[in-house]
């Protein structure tokens, strides 16, 4: 009886939601439901007042055709039944903002930028895909994101997923209005990016992955990269590569050992050699090729966990000479010297540098540097970064590392002192709570979820860890805190799960954990972030 009562309450709540909100994720800043429906059919046309909107219109047409089997035609007629309107730019206009007016006979999407139009069409698309009988409910939407940086990181050094899977992830990112894809392409297990001046980085460094060191080389050619970057750009997603340094360099050093600074037990050949001038020329060459491939003019240079494998720095004659010449008191000072030089190389390419939070201590130029705060137990690193005026992206392991498990019963991913990252914790993450004043609030660009792949060796497991947390991430990054409602999110999510089913995703359903059991994964060693 109690279960029946709760089910009735949920049904009533969901019905009320359908009228007041509909199943848009992330929840818009302002949504007013009306009476009636706009019906999609093959007589619907789409038009736009500026050719810059053609890409967004084509995207919407293709999605309706592939998802619903509905063909809509473009028209130059301003009386199109779906009209896209690019408004004249005003001072301080939000390029991410959009308005959607849905009447029973017409839909109008307006914005100050093509990106805003795209986001408006995404909201219309979600209503179309979650509605019944090809009907879109009458409504007025006035929306803009709370944060400009809404990101997802994928580690492909530890497991290579390939071009089609990356495109699939980009599609879902676009569907949830995420706009930054951080691509972790280099690390200890493998190097996944073709560099023409140093071909062995991919041909030798690309051999193996985290679980199998003998796999044939897998990497992205420069043609692949250009294709994926263009694919992302059509969805208003910028792609940021990570070239990890000076640590996590084992794969690169396997290919070109003359630039190795050695390692330590468990982390062989872990670092580049900061004591050799040729190391800086070599890495600068790599950054030059990389920067051409990624037009966002943002490159992540790593800078994390160097102490795991810099033991040989204490005895390397080149590094000892560097320390003496530059009066560097310890290995941390050597690391900061190295990172300043590599950051300078990047700045000279008119690109900004991104670092993990260890580099908040390095005194890099604040106007050219972004810090990722990832260690939730190191709140002082966040405070240091903000006090120095760095722009910051929040991606703390709890709750934004998606390789952490989603449920207490799950055994195949990470936990932190028995803590894990369920969808509710992701949803309730509040970036504003980390700012102590208005200035710090402005410095927080947004949030990002990171998925490391030590425990992800196939596409199904990747889906299992991404979905539905990617939807919760989107709402945490976009929706104003005052508008967030976890019950409403779950009501919307229940309709999005049907879309996951249709797409063939192996997702985790928090309301039905038995539906898709956790996928086992091989392990090389016990997982412990504190080792």
UniProtKB/TrEMBL annotation:
<feature type="signal peptide">
    <location>
        <begin position="1"/>
        <end position="18"/>
    </location>
</feature>
<comment type="similarity">
    <text>Belongs to the glycosyl hydrolase 20 family.</text>
</comment>
<dbReference type="InterPro" id="IPR029018">
    <property type="entry name" value="Hex-like_dom2"/>
</dbReference>
<dbReference type="GO" id="GO:0016020">
    <property type="term" value="C:membrane"/>
</dbReference>
<dbReference type="InterPro" id="IPR017853">
    <property type="entry name" value="GH"/>
</dbReference>
<dbReference type="InterPro" id="IPR025705">
    <property type="entry name" value="Beta_hexosaminidase_sua/sub"/>
</dbReference>
<feature type="domain" description="Beta-hexosaminidase bacterial type N-terminal">
    <location>
        <begin position="23"/>
        <end position="144"/>
    </location>
</feature>
<keyword id="KW-0732">Signal</keyword>
<feature type="active site" description="Proton donor">
    <location>
        <position position="305"/>
    </location>
</feature>
<keyword id="KW-0326">Glycosidase</keyword>
<keyword id="KW-0378">Hydrolase</keyword>
<dbReference type="Pfam" id="PF00728">
    <property type="entry name" value="Glyco_hydro_20"/>
</dbReference>
<dbReference type="InterPro" id="IPR015883">
    <property type="entry name" value="Glyco_hydro_20_cat"/>
</dbReference>
<feature type="domain" description="Glycoside hydrolase family 20 catalytic">
    <location>
        <begin position="147"/>
        <end position="480"/>
    </location>
</feature>
<dbReference type="GO" id="GO:0030203">
    <property type="term" value="P:glycosaminoglycan metabolic process"/>
</dbReference>
<protein>
    <recommendedName>
        <fullName>beta-N-acetylhexosaminidase</fullName>
        <ecNumber>3.2.1.52</ecNumber>
    </recommendedName>
</protein>
<dbReference type="Pfam" id="PF02838">
    <property type="entry name" value="Glyco_hydro_20b"/>
</dbReference>
<dbReference type="GO" id="GO:0005975">
    <property type="term" value="P:carbohydrate metabolic process"/>
</dbReference>
<dbReference type="InterPro" id="IPR015882">
    <property type="entry name" value="HEX_bac_N"/>
</dbReference>
<dbReference type="GO" id="GO:0004563">
    <property type="term" value="F:beta-N-acetylhexosaminidase activity"/>
</dbReference>
